Amino acid sequence: MAAESSPLSRAMQQILPVNPIQGRDTGRPLAERMALYNCPGMSICLMEGGEIVDAAGYGVTEAGGPPVEADTVFAGASI
């Protein structure tokens, strides 16, 4: 997992809803957002200038499964 002080870790603490409502919706920590959507795990990277500057895995591959790493392969993705 990314270091707690990394840019990626800081960004993960303020994920906004898909359609935020001004004054009502605020950023949510990644763990809270994953629980909301029943997502056991995910990997994500932060890119600058076309280069990966940080990457991390969060959670597990499935309930009771191994931890997700930055390079864990998933069947589907969203970019």
Structure report:
This protein has about 80 residues and is α+β, with helices and mostly antiparallel strands. It has helices at about 5-10, 30-35; strands at about 40-50, 50-60.
Write the layout of secondary structure elements.
Blueprint: H1 7-12, H2 30-36, E1 41-48, E2 51-59
Antiparallel strand pairs: 1-2
Question: Care to give the gist of this entry?
Answer:
The protein has helices at residues 7-12, 30-36, and strands spanning 41-48, 51-59.
- Oligomeric description of these chains: single chain
Q: How helical, in percent, are the residues?
A: 10-25%
Query: Which parts are unreliable, with pLDDT below 50 for 5 consecutive residues or more?
Result: none
- Shape descriptor reads globular
Succession of helices and strands: HHEE
Strand order of the largest sheet: 1-2
Mean pLDDT: 80
Structural class: alpha+beta
The proportion of residues in beta strands is 15-25%
Describe the sheet with the most strands: 2 strands, antiparallel
- The count of helical stretches stands at 2
Keywords:
79 residues; 2 strands; two-stranded antiparallel sheet; alpha+beta
